[in-house]
Amino acid sequence: KLGTLSPQTKHISKEEEEKCTLGILERLDAGEVVVGDGGFLLTLEKRGYVKAGLWTPEAVVEHPNAVRQLHMEFLRAGSNVMQTFTFSANEDNMESQWEAVNAAACDLAQEVAGKGDALVAGGLCQTSLYKHHKDEDRIKKLFRLQLEVFVRKNVDFLIAEYFEYAEEAVWAVEVLKESGKPVAATMCIGPEGDMHGVTPGECAVKLVKAELGRQRGANLQGASIIGVNCRFGPWTSLKTMRLMKEGLQAAGLKAHLMVQSLVFHMPDCGKGGFVDLPEYPFALEPRVATRWDIQKYAREAYNLGIRYIGGCCGFEPYHIRAIAEELAPERGFLPPASEKHGSWGSGLNMHTKPWIRARARREYWENLLPASGRPFCPSLSKPDV
């Protein structure tokens, strides 16, 4: 059942925004819902600040106001986490720019997080090296260089995200654990598992079991938060999360669960996700989920036991607001962006047209099946690979 606001649900006050923030694990251990942020790469590419290809985030240096504004919009929409815009910002992809970009990204995220009850997460992703030579020492060195900046900037926690291979994700977790900060790890896989055939359940177990200082014989838990991000749409991502959860339960392991899916409907994609679709990356708009779709996604994720719920590519601030509004009964408040958005279209009840006034109710939007808007296009695509 989708969430309904109670009379006690309120808009978050300035005092609550300014309160001392709890850490990520304190929040999750207490059963709180943590709302992540949305997509930066595709969003800023559409706005003219990022070049498709390597998708490197030099916009944090070249156009900081654009990145700052997007952070602000996600915060206002209800995000509890400002993730640094550091995707692909390692030395291998950015050469001499990498350090300045990582530092600037931390500064921007911290500046905006300080305006609300939000945490800053330093994020790193898979390398372009792993597929070619799997040099563990060299790859870990790249991770460690980024980690040094995150530690210097004192981010609240760390995220290893967007990994196709469980082995490389484990390497990232092992490096990030050296900081002593909480570590989250998400893979960009679907129900079929990683590119080496490691199942989602096995991936989850590997991430939680990743050792700190393996060469020193230490045996501490790896990632405290595990899940999936990117590559797949909401429903496929939740299917993968079920498999990860089952894998942990079967192994007798525990971890907090996290999901940050794409915003696109893509039941026709293959094992590689949306990068295999002919529309990627410049013609994905017809696949964008509605705010009501995302409310359903948030409720299903919550019912699955996931408490860190956000979005990845394509997620705009209004999609994050949809998560925050759906889970407002559990969180106890609405985000500032809801001040201009009546629940379930209630703002339409003053419209001059009676048929539009009739849409100011939950039943209408909950049961709507939107037309594609592309009458001469096929309903599905054939992946290129």
Automatic annotation (TrEMBL):
GO terms for cellular component: cytosol. Residues 22-327 form the Hcy-binding domain. Keywords: Metal-binding, Methyltransferase, Transferase, Zinc. GO terms for molecular function: betaine-homocysteine S-methyltransferase activity; S-methylmethionine-homocysteine S-methyltransferase activity; zinc ion binding. The keyword Membrane does not apply. GO terms for biological process: L-methionine salvage; methylation; S-adenosylmethionine metabolic process; S-methylmethionine metabolic process. It catalyses: L-homocysteine + glycine betaine = N,N-dimethylglycine + L-methionine. Its cofactor is Zn(2+). Coiled coil: none annotated. Homotetramer. This is Betaine--homocysteine S-methyltransferase 2. It comes from Sus scrofa. The gene is BHMT.
